[in-house]
Amino acid sequence: MAPQTELRQRVVAKTDVPVTAQKTFTWQEVAGHNTAASAWIIIRGKVYDVTEWANKHPGGREMVLLHAGREATDTFDSYHPFSDKAESILKKYEIGTFTGPTEFPTFKPDTGFYKECRKRVGEYFKKNKLHPQAGFAGLWRMTIVFAVAAVALYGMHFSSCFSVQLAAAALFGVCQALPLLHVMHDSSHASYTNVPFFHYVVGRFAMDWFAGGSMVSWLNQHVVGHHIYTNVAGSDPDLPVNMDGDVRRIVDRQVFKGMYAFQHLYLPPLYGVLGLKFRIQDFTETFGSHTNGPVRVNPHALSTWVAMICSKSFWAFYRIYLPLAVLQMPLKTYLAVFFLAEFVTGWYLAFNFQVSHVSTECGYPCGDEAKLALEDEWAVSQVKTSVDYAHGSWLTTFLAGALNYQVVHHLFPSVSQYHYPAIAPIVKEVCKEYGIKYAILPDFSTAFVAHLKHLRNMGKQGIPATIHMG
After folding, report:
1. Is residue 91 part of a domain?
2. What positions does the domain Cytochrome b5 heme-binding occupy (predicted)?
3. I need a labelling partner for 242 at 20 to 30 A (CA). Which of 149, 330, 347, 393 fits?
């Protein structure tokens, strides 16, 4: 384990240095203030004590506490893209400056690209009198999905025909994934509505109670890690963390192993275990070791533990106990329909996520060597490390939860997915003016082939992946 990684895991204790006696802080000192009792953040080289502000935050205290003890410049900018109000409020809580090396690699400051994107997209909302969060948009779609899921669940457990049970299980697997791509995903980015209460309730209903996962794990992996350090090896939890031992080889920094020559064949089937893997990691990492890949997970309140145990118990009750103990399904039949449903969910989610970032059309900052400073600005890096596909297809957009507009999603995570098709041409035009390649593939099939090609390329010893950095 790298010394820096070990150090990150040792900073859970709060620093004893009084604020009044010290005006410059290291990331380790800031990292010690990562609870509701003492929450500090670093933004643009300044350290802020936002403990008091957390309960006043219009976006909800959870988003503040999630980033407590961290460098949060790019998160702050991407979640406040159309107003300077948050910046003016933040000044009231400044307590010092940040000094020394950073915990993770840093991006160059914005030189105008992201500012122009924010300006034009903001003008779009203003001109059309639209709200970025859309307000419960798509709720009727998810109502239908949950209804179909209920019918599928009934068919899995009560049909006397095994073929019907298998078909129902596959259908349930799809219906288990769709709410995660829609209402849960938007809720995790505070883009479902502009009311934090509904982000909490809707997101956790879909993720924790319905799917048996953990929104806390997802927030740390996806919001804190992946969305800021997209495709940055050693920082993005979605990439391999162990450079010598992972089953996948995604970047050149990873030590080559003979088995990687076949990863384009064995990885796609293995993607089916994604959902089961995440549910285990909820216990072993997020709530156990307080880590999520390279990301430090802040301490959990007692209420968070209780909520996790209750939701996991409910999921186990309706997915495991009821079919076996109450309905007395034959064990072989139960295992067949249970694992088919879970594998379909895993495949559905993994294929959607993988084609957007693990592709010959994406860049990989720090993919060949560890760096403290990255070559691009954060927003430019988001464009280069993401790939879109099937623009204009309403069906693909629905089935993918609008993740086929991945570039827009990464630049504007706090904007509802239902705005992405209208925003994409605006971002594309700004990219053209700044000479930044916006990768758009014609359909999902092409995107999937590009994903497999990257896996195959990385499985060839001494042959780097074909990367189009534009």
Report:
1. yes
2. 22-99
3. 347
